[in-house]
Amino acid sequence: MRRRASLLAASTVLAAGMALPFAAPAHAATTLKFAKFYFDQPGADTPYTQTRLNREYIQVKNVTRKTISMSGYLIQDAGAKHTFRFPSSFKLGAGKTVTVHTGKGKNTAANLYWGMTRSMIWNNTGDTATLKKGSAKVTSCSYKETAAQKKAKTGFKNC
Fold it and tell me: Any alpha helices (H) in 20-112, and if so which ranges?
């Protein structure tokens, strides 16, 4: 009887111990992530036309099964010199991706526009994009331009 109780206790402890490594902490749950990051559009950056500016973009993907209100979310470059604030009424559908272009355009469910007219946002040689909700970091994506990207004068990264 004593041996049976010891085996039962050991199996309960073992089962509980086995379950713990597979449980993710609540703060590790990711709801949004960066997808494709096109930091150096093909060709020369200047003269700045809306076509050229809008070829530079970053995508934000909702990796949940629920629509997320993007009110209060923002994207910043490494030096926080450029900040994009999501429109307060914008909602990103479950499993959907929105592309945030550098230039101007008409906002839709799939495309948003930073509104730049005279400069690119992302440094061609390297930069970091950070998605925040207020002052809290949600996710980030960094890149360094490779020799091949520099030679081809185009650069993107899948985050």
Answer: 50-54
pLDDT for 29: 56
- The least confident of 7-16, 34-43, 115-124, 127-136 is 7-16
pLDDT at 34: 97
Q: How far apart are CA 145 and CA 143, in angstroms?
A: 6
At the top level of CATH, which class does the domain 28-158 belong to? Answer: mainly beta
Q: Enumerate the domain spans of the chain.
A: 28-158
Residue 50 and residue 105 in contact, taking contact as beta carbons nearer than 8 Å: yes
Contact (CB, 8 A) for 129 and 140: yes
Cα–Cα dist 154/159, whole Å:
16
Looking at residue 14, its pLDDT comes to 38
Closest CA to 129 of 159, 95, 86, 93: 159
Q: Are 98 and 60 in contact (CB under 8 A)?
A: yes
Q: What pTM, to 2 d.p., does this model score? A: 0.79
Instruction: State yes or no: pLDDT of 12 exceeds 60.
Output: no
Cβ atoms within 10 A of the Cβ of 61, count?
19
Cα 111 from chain centroid (whole Å) = 15
